[in-house]
Design brief:
alpha+beta; GMP Synthetase, Chain A, domain 3; 3-stranded mixed sheet; 4 helices; elongated; Ribosome-bd_factorA_CS
């Protein structure tokens, strides 16, 4: 088993994070965080998972910006990473952070309800 896809995924994650922070200046991008990257075994495809802080409308606007700059990001990856073939990239919205935050809020509400309830 090769560890190359995992190593490449980490490099792509770092480079795309840097690109989004320093190169993509569109204000509709919002606060985007790269949460993970999956690279296919043949290194031809990469799924970049991003989390967007904000409302569902802000998430949608940020994803539109990311899909629009997909070619630019791939070109920059090709310049920054020495590979025979730069992977085709797709951006996917990662809502796991939002789900985790919601679960924490629910657990805190349950705990506060228990503390307020009279003990028998």
């Amino acid at each position: 088993m090769s560890h190359r896809p995992e190593r490449l995924a980490e490099i792509i994650k770092k480079e795309v994070s840097d690109l989004l922070q320093n190169e993509i200046k569109d204000p509709r991008r919002g606060f985007v965080t790269v949460t993970g990257v999956e690279v296919s075994a043949d290194l031809r495809y990469a799924r970049i998972f991003v989390s967007v802080l904000g409302t569902p409308e802000e998430e949608k606007a940020a994803m539109e910006v990311l899909n629009r700059v997909q070619g630019y990001v791939r070109g920059e990856l090709g310049r920054r990473i020495r590979l025979r073939c730069t992977p085709e990239i797709t951006f996917k919205l990662d809502s796991s952070i939002a789900r985790g935050t919601r679960v924490i809020e629910l657990l805190q509400r349950v705990n506060s309800d228990r503390e307020e309830a009279p003990h028998e």
